[in-house]
Design goal:
Blueprint: H1 27-38, E1 48-52, E2 67-70, H2 76-86, E3 91-97, H3 98-102, H4 106-114, E4 119-125, H5 160-166, E5 171-176, H6 180-192, E6 197-202, H7 214-217, H8 222-225, E7 226-228, E8 236-237, E9 243-248, E10 251-256, H9 277-283, E11 297-304, H10 310-325, H11 330-335
Parallel strand pairs: 1-2, 1-3, 3-4, 4-6, 5-6, 7-11
Antiparallel strand pairs: 5-11, 8-9, 9-10
Length: 343
C-alpha cells in the first residue's frame, strides 16, 4: 500500500469495489460516516486496518481503502487482537453484527473487551440475521416474528451495552445509523480512545426487520424516545426539553421538569467514573411503546475511562523478563527440556 499524507480524504479511503448492500440498508450511512470520521483522526491510511467476521456488516473491509481482513464467523476480535499485538502501530477496527458478534463470537468479544486490547469494535445491531435471510438473532426482541420464530421470539435478548460494560470495556457507546452527525462524532471519540472501545450502532435492515428503530429515527417522535448523553450534563430529553431522569433511591424514574422536580434534582451523566454502575443502569433503559411513561433509550458515550491496555502490560512483562534473563534465543526455547515423571 502506498503511503498517504495527512489529512486523508474520503476519496482516498474509497475502494474500486462495488458496494453491495440492499437499497436502503443502514450500512451505507455507517460506511460514509466512517470515511468522514477517519479524515479527522490523524492516522495515515497505511496504519488503518479493518477486521470483520461473517454477515452483511462484514463486507465492510472491501469498501475501505485500508488494510482489511475478512475472517471467520465470530472470530474477528481474536484476529484483531493478534494483529494489534503483532503491529502496535496499527489502529485496528472490528466490524461485526448482532448475529456474528453476540452468538458464535460472544466469547471472543467478551475476552477482547475485558483484556482492554486497544481495538475499536463496531457492532451493527439490526436485531436479525440478514445475510442468512431473516432468522431471529441473539438481540431480537421478544415477540419478533422471523423465519425461525413465526410465532414471535420468546427468548430473552442480549443487551450489547450491558454485556460490554459487564466485560469492563473502557469505552462504551451507542449511536444510530441515520443520525449522521452523532454517528460521526461517536466514531471519532472511539478512534481517540486508548483501550477497548465498543460502539453499538442501531442499524436498519430494510428487508427482514424494517423500522425496528423507527421510534429512534422518526423525527416526529424520536426526541421523546432518545436520551442524548453528555458528560457532566443533567439527563434531559423530550421534544420540549421538559423531561428528565431522576433517581428515587436506587430506582430511576422519568419526571417532568418544573412539575415533579427542578433541573438540579436530575441525574447528571458521568462517563469518566471508574465505577460502571451508572453506565450499566443506563444500558438497561428500553423504550416501551405500550407505556406512557417509558424510559428513553440513551445514545452517546456511556463510559470512557483510561486503564492500562493489554499491549502496555504485555510489553512491561516482556521488558521485566528481558532485563532479568536477557533477550534469549528462540533456538534455546526449542531445545529446552520440559521433563516430568508420572508414577
Amino acid at each position: 500500500m502506498a503511503t498517504t499524507s495527512l489529512p486523508l480524504t474520503t476519496k482516498e479511503l474509497t475502494t474500486d469495489q462495488e458496494v453491495r448492500w440492499c437499497p436502503g440498508c443502514g450500512d451505507y450511512s455507517i460506511l460514509a460516516q466512517m470515511k468522514t470520521a477517519l479524515t479527522t483522526v490523524g492516522v495515515p491510511r497505511e496504519k488503518l486496518a479493518f477486521v470483520s467476521g461473517i454477515g452483511c456488516s462484514s463486507r465492510f473491509p472491501y469498501y475501505m481503502n485500508t488494510f482489511g481482513f475478512h475472517t471467520i464467523h465470530g472470530r474477528a476480535p481474536t484476529f484483531a487482537t493478534g494483529l494489534r499485538l503483532a503491529n502496535p502501530d496499527l489502529q485496528v477496527w472490528v466490524v461485526t453484527g448482532d448475529g456474528d458478534g453476540l452468538s458464535i463470537g460472544g466469547n471472543h468479544l467478551v475476552h477482547a473487551l475485558r483484556r482492554n486490547v486497544d481495538i475499536k469494535v463496531l457492532l451493527f445491531n439490526n436485531e436479525i440475521y440478514g445475510l442468512t435471510k431473516g432468522q431471529y438473532s441473539p438481540a431480537s426482541r421478544m415477540g419478533t416474528p422471523s423465519k425461525t420464530s413465526p410465532g414471535g421470539s420468546f427468548e430473552t435478548p442480549v443487551r450489547p451495552l450491558s454485556l460490554a460494560l459487564a466485560a469492563e470495556a473502557t469505552f462504551v457507546a451507542r449511536t444510530v445509523d441515520v443520525d449522521v452527525q452523532h454517528l460521526r462524532a461517536t466514531l471519532q471519540k472511539a478512534a481517540a480512545h486508548k483501550g477497548s472501545a465498543f460502539v453499538e450502532i442501531y442499524q436498519n435492515c430494510v428487508i427482514f426487520n424494517d423500522d425496528v428503530y423507527k421510534y429512534a429515527t422518526d423525527k416526529a417522535v424520536k426526541a421523546d424516545n432518545l436520551l442524548y448523553l453528555e458528560h457532566g450534563k443533567p439527563m434531559i430529553f423530550g421534544k420540549d426539553k421538559n423531561k428528565g431522569i431522576r433517581l428515587n433511591g436506587l430506582k430511576p424514574e422519568v419526571v417532568t421538569i418544573g412539575k415533579d422536580c427542578q433541573v438540579d434534582d436530575l441525574l447528571t451523566h458521568d462517563e469518566k467514573s471508574d465505577d460502571a454502575t451508572l453506565a450499566y443502569l443506563l444500558s438497561r433503559f428500553a423504550h416501551d411503546p405500550r407505556s406512557a411513561n417509558s424510559f428513553p433509550e440513551p445514545v452517546g458515550v456511556f463510559r470512557s475511562v483510561r486503564k492500562p491496555t493489554y499491549e502496555e502490560q504485555l510489553d512491561g512483562r516482556i521488558k521485566t523478563a528481558t532485563d532479568k534473563k536477557g533477550p534469549g534465543k528462540i533456538e534455546d526455547l526449542f531445545k529446552a527440556e520440559d521433563v516430568w515423571t508420572v508414577s
